[in-house]
Amino acid sequence: MNTPANRTEWAELIVKEMSSASDPNDTRNRVFRILEMFDKCAANCSTPDEAHKMREMIIATILG
User: Which PANTHER family has this protein been placed in (predicted)?
Assistant: First the structure.
């Protein structure tokens, strides 16, 4: 799976995660994880290399 590089790819990841949820609680937990990771990514990225590393961490955490 490729790391999301733009809003479209993030949206596709979110849709995939939501489609995989087993119940409303699972859906809610997946949403919180995605939002937390996205917030951290946005807040901490100051260089392209750093942004790439953060995206990799997001994918590893979500798909863990």
Answer: GENOME ASSEMBLY, CHROMOSOME: II, UBIQUITIN SYSTEM COMPONENT CUE PROTEIN
